[in-house]
Amino acid sequence: MTTPSAAPPSTPATAATAPVAGTGPASDPAGAPRGRGSLGPVGLVLAGGLSVQFGAALAVSLMPRAGALGVVTLRLAVAAVVLLLICRPRLRGHSRADWGTVVVFGIAMAGMNGLFYQAVDRIPLGPAVTLEVLGPLALSVFASRRAVNLVWAALALAGVFLLGGGGFDSLDPAGVAFALGAGAMWAAYIVFSARTGRRFPQADGLALAMAVGAVLFLPLGIAESGGKLLDPMTLALGAGVALLSSVLPYTLELLALRRLPAPTFAILMSLEPAIAAAAGFLILDQALSATQSAAIALVIAASMGAVRTQVGRRRVKALPDVSQAH
């Protein structure tokens, strides 16, 4: 995935603002420069998206060695170690509510990654990301409560219908269910990413939540893969997945959001299914049919439309800034 991936909660985020943001930071600083000079940040965002999806493709190639649960364990563990070393979060001075929020955030993150990797172990990467995107898209549509969003929802459903060939006969039903479950966890991730960002400074909450997710998944990874997780090649590939899918995209997107408006960022993130399809084709030789390609295009269009609708709504209300979540 997305990642499927995670958003550093450095600042507060509004869950309803953007339906998709595969691994993006939680918010955009108010008054981010617009127009001239945006090519650099756009390049950073696209590079982050490419990193996430090619990391997911690498994870799929690693699954025969370590299993889906083993790959998730390696990704979460390595990313947690790197983020804890970089952020060095304080463990004292936080309330019970703070810890409760970060624990739920970690559970959502672990569930999102675990379900997504179970999905890509069964269905191609492009369709898996497309189905996963429906979670954040549904969150945006329901939260905005605008009639026009019914159009975007219908467009997305049409894409899902095409993707399943009218009945998902061409896709493994379990893989579809896992991808939809990952989308639901992605929506929960967005909500608790925002709450964590309000309670913890910088990316401290993300680092702690990543550690929670790694601890939760460790028994599952050991049960499925055992000593395979300690194989030097498996460890190296797992570290590569963690760097490509978590550490590198977070860094690139944080840099981009210093100069790029959040609405532009969210629209760029809507391209994640297309990037995933390209990564699946180039690395995993997962070719898509014309119908599946059209389905992905419909879901991307629905995501972009929902983002623009939500941005327009916030501009009408004249709020001081526009935030978005992973």
Count the E strands: 0
What is the typical, i.e. mean, pLDDT? 76
Supply the helix-strand structural class. mainly alpha
The number of helices is: 10
Q: What is the terminal-to-terminal distance?
A: 12 Å
What sort of overall outline do the alpha carbons produce when their principal axes are compared?
globular
| Major beta sheet summary | none
SSE topology string: HHHHHHHHHH
- Which range does the strand content fall in? under 5%
Q: What share of residues is helical? A: over 70%
Q: How would you explain this protein's 3D organization?
A:
This protein has 326 residues and is mainly α. 71% of the residues lie in helices and 0% in strands. The chain is built from ten helices and no strands. It has helices at residues 39-87, 96-120, 125-144, 148-163, 173-199, 204-225, 232-256, 262-269, 272-284, 290-316. The longest helix is centred in the first third of the chain and has 49 residues, at 39-87. The radius of gyration is 18 Å and the shape is globular. The protein starts with 38 loop residues before the first helix and ends in a 10-residue tail after the last helix. The relative contact order is 0.27.
